[in-house]
Design brief:
This protein is of the alpha/beta class and 215 residues long. The protein has one domain. The protein contains 8 helices and 6 strands. The strands form 2 sheets. Strands 2-3-1-4 form a 4-stranded mixed sheet. Strands 5-6 form a two-stranded antiparallel sheet. The longest helix is centred in the middle third of the chain and has 17 residues. The N terminus is likely disordered.
């Protein structure tokens, strides 16, 4: 998972419409996710997420066999909430006027990305009172979540072209162990081994750091 800590860096108090609540309140308050999660989340996942949001972390990697999708869904939903508290998310991060601030979940193909992580995020957002009342997405659009003030979330296939051209704020990779590794690949000038997971991760990590003014 790749994310930006929006409570540091170039974002200052003057950019906020209202002060965001912390992650603990976001999960446990019925106006946020308590009504949706209903306590059905492992404590170890909440502990890891608390550590992620309380620390100055930019990236996180989860290797357990369970809980990865839930963790990524809750994490991205909280990041969307944090952006919703800003007056203008794009301006806060120095993006060009009209540029989107994007959340992407990447999987081996778009269908898989839509089926797993994107579906979980949409479920959380659709049933969260805060998002319904204060930061609703356009329910007419089924292939992505379009929020006010240029915040969007969508699934993409694991290709280099699919992630170009957006102001990606946060990303999550799913099923990395199924991404192809090609020996003697024509994609490399010396015909070496092309590891798609590594290539995509490095490219997207650099993109987030450069676009969002993050070191």
């Amino acid at each position: 998972m790749l994310r930006i800590n929006i409570l540091s860096g170039p974002v200052y108090e003057v950019n906020y419409r209202h002060k965001p609540v912390d992650f603990h309140k976001f999960v446990n308050d019925p106006y946020f996710l308590r009504t949706v999660l209903r306590g059905n989340i492992f404590p170890i996942i909440l502990d890891d997420l608390n550590q992620l949001f309380e620390g100055d972390y930019i990236e996180a990697r989860r290797l357990y066999r369970w809980g990865k999708t839930v963790m990524a869904s809750v994490r991205m939903t909280f990041d969307m909430y944090l952006l919703s508290c800003l007056k203008n998310p794009g301006d806060a991060y120095g993006l060009l006027p009209g540029a989107n601030v994007a959340f992407v979940n990447v999987s081996i193909n778009k269908r898989q990305a839509m089926k797993i992580l994107f579906r979980g995020i949409r479920h959380l957002v659709r049933n969260c009172p805060y998002f319904k009342n204060e930061f609703p997405y356009d329910e007419r659009v089924l292939t992505e979540l379009r929020f006010p003030r240029g915040v969007i979330a969508y699934p993409v296939a694991a290709t280099e072209q699919s992630m170009l051209g957006e102001g990606v704020f946060s990303a999550a990779f799913d099923e990395l162990n199924f991404y192809p590794i090609v020996s003697n690949s024509k994609r490399l000038p010396e015909g070496g081994t092309y590891d798609e997971a590594t290539v995509l991760y490095n490219r997207l990590s650099r993109r987030i750091r450069s676009r969002m003014n993050c070191g």
